[in-house]
């Protein structure tokens, strides 16, 4: 690879090297490219004379029958007709005799039939039996392991025994494409590489792509001289020939130099795949000269790669099995708690066994509909709002996982002690509802095979790039990172999300059902109201009238005690009718739709005071209004009722010689937690008898009076209940402050506000 001024100096430039079309092969065999169906040779490696005593010029343009006898051609045709060899190299047959015997490996690529001839030393039957025995023993040993590490160590030990390489490593790819040696079998006098890490640039992207296509790669002698491919015509459409699946394909000069820098003289790799992705490599190095493996041994190793790849997921699952079972038990309990609580937030956080016991973490934050509950060690709530905004804006997925949060979200760097790792589970697409698991910082020492920050050097003449030369242990301390999240934990988070969504959907269906029942109940309640207002009141009027008739018509006959009883009957029927009327009115207040409009409270208050004028004058009550009331968006009739009831109460419950009632409002401070377009807190204050503290909640209950039925003007005890219902229907709240013998102040709002009562002076 020559150095170009426009090419930045970085080993990742190798990602652009066309290693699948090198135009050369390794010299331990011959490669032919043929057209079909005539099997005419259109490309031939330049070393054909070494193996066939035939120059390429004698073969190019000729049919394959130039090299194979009719029986071999027939056998080859039968195999290629019955087998799938498209992008799938397959041993077909062994041809020749004596010392001139060759294994033929064939595959199709881009419309051409590619046949590789490699010297053969064993019979086909002996080879098959040998492969079976080797693979069977290794697979059985790997199946008995219960963890990824023991599985890997068993595999590399078996491969070294099979192949005789000086060093065999299992090199596992990490999420960032770097590599980690998790198992190794090595000759005793060589430096071990176990647990070393290697940067992603050591295996470029297009090399990883080739490992996905071709499961095994052998370089018997890294000092080989590449053999060029020759074609019938330099302009032949078969040029360049794609050698992605060819065992003889020549390798990148940079990779050869990389192996030399490691002291290797031969190399082989076996791909390990998980769910169609490259999971790792079994990397084999020889340090004591060339190491050529017969095809049957290579076939055994390749087949082994296929078989053990199927076990990778199983080993990872077995390793996580106990933890997974524990997670499922906690999940079942959380679902049960959410169902009982009828509230997701409470079900996850309010019980002794809560969401902090689910996935192992330093702390967890549950943020739902503007509420955040923090459990364990987490960042402060003030830091969570910006974090949620960042997640919402930058993370499109339902799950965000990192063990290096400060690198991706620098604002968390000062809080790395509690939040170096984050598993964020989004529960709703339209709202920032999240469960956030945090993991603390864990300082880690990563052992690299050489300095990962210096992966590239120039050659001596400065003309081309060279891979790094030093593979000595390089220790790096990594800060602001946490322990990584395990696949079982990621799966557990997804299962919790699914459970919550299923529960919410169930609750939606349940709510719809309850709404239907409520609508039916409201219809029945309306029917009851009709009966109460007509059918029940009619007998009451009859009782009332007949009691009057008895008094009028038989008053001179009935004695004083009888007349008193009749008078009591009249009074009781009147009270019963008043109770029914009050109950009906309270029912309508709770069910009727509010007719909201912009209302001038100053004008409404003037009308209320005018209507109450005779009572105010009779009681000698002074009405004080410190400043005009504002205009607000409310139900006009209902607001008049609020002021009317509160002023009436102020008039009734006052035994002072000089009586007064004050009506006014305060505006919430600018730094109130809940913003509102109408931040008003209204009040009605009097200098009456006051309300004992122990009764300040019960007075809002319907038909609850603190005094005798006829004391302080009597009444049924529903005024404050109706006031509370009206205020709450507007989304507001009502409360009171009182001093016995000095008076009472009722405070109320017509909007949902967060009110700091101390700052209001109450």
Pick out its properties.
762 residues; alpha+beta; Beta-Lactamase; 4 domains; seven-stranded antiparallel β-sheet; six-stranded antiparallel β-sheet; 18 helices; 23% strand; elongated; disordered N terminus
Strand order of the largest sheet: 1-11-3-2-6-5-4
CATH structural fold name of the largest domain: Beta-Lactamase
Q: Which whole number gives the mean pLDDT?
A: 81
Low confidence ranges? 1-13, 461-466, 712-716
Q: Kindly, what is the distance between the CA atoms of the first and last residues, rounded to a whole number of angstroms?
A: 82 Å
Name the shape in a single word: elongated
What is the CA-based Rg, rounded?
45 Å
User: What's the level 1 CATH class of the largest domain?
Assistant: Alpha Beta
What portion of residues is helical?
A: 25-40%
Explain what the structure shows:
The chain is α+β, with helices and mostly antiparallel strands and 762 residues long. It has four domains: 11-317, GAF domain (Beta-Lactamase, 2-Layer Sandwich), CATH 3.30.450; 346-441, PHY domain (Beta-Lactamase, 2-Layer Sandwich); 495-592; 593-748, 2-Layer Sandwich (Heat Shock Protein 90), CATH 3.30.565.10. It has 18 helices and 29 strands. It has a seven-stranded antiparallel beta sheet with strand order 1-11-3-2-6-5-4. A six-stranded antiparallel beta sheet has the order 9-8-7-13-12-10. A five-stranded antiparallel beta sheet has the order 15-14-18-17-16, with helices on both faces. A hairpin with a 2-residue loop joins strand 5 and strand 6 (112-119). Helix 13 packs antiparallel against helix 14 (560-591), helix 14 packs parallel to helix 18 and helix 17 runs antiparallel to helix 18. The two termini are 82 Å apart. The model is unreliable at 1-13, 461-466 and 712-716 (pLDDT under 50).
